[in-house]
Amino acid sequence: MEFRVAVVGATGMVGQEVLAILSERLFPAKEVIALASRSSQGREVSFGDKTLKCQDLAQFDFSKADIAIFAAGGSISEEFGPKAAKAGCVVIDNSSHFRLDPDVPLIVPEVNPDAVRGFKKKNIIANPNCSTAQLVVALKPLHDRAKIKRVVVSTYQSVSGAGREAADELFTQTKGIFVNDHPDPERFTKQIAFNVIPHIDVFLDDGSTKEEFKMVAETKKILDPSIKLNATAVRVPVFVGHSEAVNIEFENEITDDEARDILREAPGCMVIDKREDGGYITPVECVGDFATFISRIRVDPTVENGLNIWVVSDNLRKGAALNAVQIAELLINRNLIEDRS
Question: Where in the sequence numbering do the catalytic residues fall?
Answer without folding.
Answer: 130, 242
